[in-house]
Amino acid sequence: MTVTYKFPEGFWWGSAASATQTEGGTNEDGRGKNIWDYWYELEPNRFFESVGPETTSDFYHRYREDINNMKEIGHNSFRLSISWSRLIPGGEGEVNEKAVTFYNQVIDELINNDIEPFVNLFHFDMPIELQEKGGWENREVVNAYVEYARTSFKLFGDRVKKWFTFNEPIVPVEGGYLYDFHYPNIVNAKKAFQVAYNTMIAHAKAVKVYHDNQDGKIGIILNLTPSYPRSENSADLKAAHICDLFFNRSFLDPAVKGEYPVDLIHLLEEYGQLPTTEKGDKQLLKNNIVDILGVNYYQPRRVKAKGNLPNPYSPFMPDWFFDNYEMPGRKMNPYRGWEIYEKGIYDIMINLRDNYSNIESFISENGMGVQNEDRFIKNGRIEDDYRIDFIKDHLKWLHQAIEEGCNAKGYHLWTFMDNWSWMNAYKNRYGFFSVNIETKERTAKKSASWFAEVSKNNGFHA
Ligand code: BGP
Domain 4-461, CATH 3.20.20.80 — does that match? Predict the structure, then answer.
């Protein structure tokens, strides 16, 4: 039986990308360096096939062609990020006029093609000079970020009406301060919590500046990974609850409710891990909640109770409270090593409906990175049926959530065209369009034309 999945009027169809992963042009027009440029100089071997971020997909020069392609495949919205170190080289001080011209052109080109720009301010890309001052550990950097946000709102806020302060702010915490996959590669939980906390303060201050001066919407983009316990046993349930506190609610609660979960505060207190705070912070968080929430969803988190007690002499880690659980029979994306669990998208939305005042939200990233996609070329095009199925299966659950009253307004794929995936560089490809990394030529995959139809019909049959 064929079922029709029709989405609400005005549903946002599009995709998301980030500056460091797509722009290239890193040494042009006065752009400053960020932590990725620097880390690559330091340790190129840590990046897949030693490919760095200098040119990536060359959006800096080819954005007109790309925006035209977006239009072709039915985008009515697109998320980009501003590169802080391009707009304000060094992170503080003078604005780079060439960068203003570039982002103005991109924003205008999108609008002229009826594609609404959603603009994110920070996508893992700390200017290196500010990292040298301690990055998010340092409240001076928080102030610099707020000035950067203020400048961006002033420059582009007349045309951009959806802003996001951060993309996945937990990831620089995990990568840079717990699990060694982002610069500065520190492993220190206490610092990690300070970084997370200060990021949240930066966020709330930027929200305040926005609400005081502008009339659009401002939000944050969080990667919500539902934590599923192995069983209903209380020890497994506790492990899942703690994971949820650390990895989801540490940002979700302050962003949407304006306060941290009490359980999280107690746990950090008990282990002497509470971050340093300043007078007025609590009120700042309370008064500056988001208007809109972007949800990135790739994979669930499955956990079980700890099998062995952690070594009491080892430094504190969140992992003291849970073990990862490999569910037998789980469906995997083997290239990325991530489980595919479509229903997770529905569970997140129901949680937002029931526990987070059904805040306006959308799927701001979802997607499937696949290695060596050239093996699927037929008649010059990558036949990525696996990606079409992946999107369809997630959209079905999103549709179900909307039917049940969830306030989900759109779906953005990660990503528009193949891009530079941090340490994985160009290993796994995610785009509707493939990119030849030598010639930079773009070619539509099968999913691109499928998506054009979905957008045109505001839904699909399956
Ligand atoms: C998200 C990030 C993106 C993107 C995506 C895919 O966490 O917001 O920047 O990279 O994941 O992950 P990866 O590129 O690591 O495969």
Answer: yes
